[in-house]
Amino acid sequence: RPQDFGVELFHPGALNKFEAFSQMLAESGRSVPYRYVMLIDDDLRFAPGDVSRYFELCEAHRLFLSQPAIAWGSNSNHLCNPVCVVRQVIFAEVMAPCFSREALVQLLPTFLLTRCTWGIDYAWSSMLQGRGLISVVDAVTMDHTKPMDRAEGPSLNLRVRCDVRAAGGTHRQFVTVIAPDGSLVDNFEEH
Q1: Is-contact 37 108, C-beta < 8 A?
Q2: Rounded to whole angstroms, how far apart are CA atoms 190 and 49?
Q3: Pair 19, 32: CB distance under 8 Å
Q4: What is the pLDDT of residue 8?
Q5: Residue 103: which residues within 8 A CB-CB, separation 6 or more?
Q6: 185, CA 20 to 30 Å: which among 71, 117, 120, 153?
Q7: pLDDT in tens, 74-110
Q8: Gap between the Cα atoms of 19 and 28, Å rounded
Q9: When comparing pLDDT for 81 and 36, which is higher?
């Protein structure tokens, strides 16, 4: 039955999908129960069977943090590269990130950095920089059905602070500033 294959959750009091997922996981009192978790915006469209195929590719390629490619003609970055199945990138967008269990454990603290969600994808990129852990799955595409609302959207020079504690106890703090049009204004390390 089709209803057995999809899950849509609503969490009262949460303003975004990351906040809702964090609250739901905390209230369950359980560790991450899935091998992969994908948090999808409501303006994305997949062909029938593509989400299942996407999870199979994540499993086969042992992906850490990934996203499906965006179909040509859609609104956004990471457009599909037709010669690739999976490729490494330095950034996964907030619209449909897929976290392995290990990635979710590491990146879950970033879910509450901002209420509007813009910028936490920059935090992921900073935290995972140079480790080859972010991928786009070109073999599965999604249509982004509406453009980002840059005039009335949720960001006005959004500042996202990200604390990174590396192995060996080193600590770095990054600040990313994002303009209302979604462009990167500044990305710097705080001392």
Answers
A1: no
A2: 45
A3: no
A4: 57
A5: 64, 65, 133
A6: 71
A7: 766 667 788 889 999 998 989 899 999 999 999 998 9
A8: 14
A9: 36
Secondary structure in 3-state letters for the chain: CHHHCCCCCCCCCCCCHHHHHHHHHHHHCCCCCCCEEECCCCCEECCCCHHHHHHHHHHHCCCCEEEEEECCCCCCCCECCCCCCEEECCCCCCCCCEEEHHHHHHHHHHHHCCCCCCCHHHHHHHHHCCCCCEEEEEEEEEEECCCCCCCCCCCCCEEEEEEEECCCCCEEEEEEEECCCCCEEEEEEEC
Q: Token match 């369950």: residue?
A: 28
Higher pLDDT among residues 5 and 24, named by residue? 24
